[in-house]
């Protein structure tokens, strides 16, 4: 795993795209603070840049770097959930402008995955994580289902967990600063 982290990290630092296994599905990723790299993901996925992307961070400390005020309920949800859960937060900061939604929100997950954790830690920052498919097409459940268009569109393909079958993407919850919780995807 050490060699794969080193290779992926180099590509991320150079503004490139990686294809990597996450705690949910295979993802296309880049440095979440790099405007041009985020733009490349939208182009590869053939997705409108008004449709927000998810980011991964290593831990609570890193989360606070990208959200002005993390609601206490978010930390409780992170602690008690037993499945991958992405939370949409208000008042995003320190991320590429084209990654932040028009309403200034950002979707972030702390993955329960050693590779993702180490990659975020070594980058010392958030990594974009969007499903490895062209927009409008089904999310691949395994590495074998990823299209050649996506494989050719990234700069590095991580050579880990290629046999893993993914159940489904993460749950998504939106938290408002006023305490309102809205389930977006279960």
Question: What's this model, at a glance?
Answer:
The protein has 186 residues and is an alpha/beta fold. Helices cover 30% and strands 20% of the residues. It has helices spanning 2-13, 35-45, 60-66, 72-80, 114-123, 148-153; strands at 18-21, 26-29, 54-56, 85-89, 106-109, 127-131, 156-157, 171-175, 181-185.
Please, could you describe this protein's structure?
There is one protein chain. The chain has 186 residues and is α/β, with parallel strands linked by helices. Helices cover 30% and strands 20% of the residues. It contains six helices and nine strands; from the N terminus they run αββαβααββαβαβββ. The model has no long low-confidence stretch (mean pLDDT 92).
> Segments where pLDDT lies below 50 for 5+ residues?
none
| Major β-sheet annotation | 9 strands, mixed
Number of strands: 9
Structural class: alpha/beta
Lateral arrangement of strands in the main beta sheet: 7-1-2-6-3-5-4-8-9
End-to-end separation in angstroms reads 31 Å
Please state the CA-atom Rg, rounded to the nearest Å: 15 Å
Taking all residues together, what is the mean pLDDT?
Answer: 92
As a percent range, the share of helical residues equals 25-40%
Q: How many alpha or pi helices?
A: 6
Estimate the global geometry from the Cα principal axes: globular
Query: What is the strand content?
Result: 15-25%
Q: Order of helices and strands, N to C?
A: HEEHEHHEEHEHEEE
């Amino acid at each position: 795993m050490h060699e794969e982290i080193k290779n992926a990290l180099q590509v991320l630092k150079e503004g490139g795209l990686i294809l990597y296994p996450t705690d949910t599905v295979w993802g296309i990723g880049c440095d979440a603070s790099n405007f041009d790299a985020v733009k490349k993901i939208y182009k590869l996925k053939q997705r409108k840049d008004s449709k927000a992307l998810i980011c991964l961070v290593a831990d609570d400390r890193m989360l606070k770097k990208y959200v002005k005020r993390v609601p206490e309920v978010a930390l409780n949800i992170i602690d008690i959930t037993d499945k991958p859960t992405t939370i949409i937060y208000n008042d995003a900061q320190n991320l590429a402008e084209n990654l932040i939604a028009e309403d200034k929100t950002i979707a972030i997950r702390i993955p329960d995955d050693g590779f993702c954790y180490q990659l975020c830690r070594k980058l010392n920052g958030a990594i974009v994580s969007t499903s490895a498919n062209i927009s409008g097409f089904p999310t691949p459940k395994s590495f074998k289902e990823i299209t050649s268009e996506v494989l050719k569109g990234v700069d590095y393909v991580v050579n880990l967990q290629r046999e893993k079958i993914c159940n489904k993407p993460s749950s998504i919850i939106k938290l408002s600063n006023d305490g309102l919780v809205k389930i977006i995807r279960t």
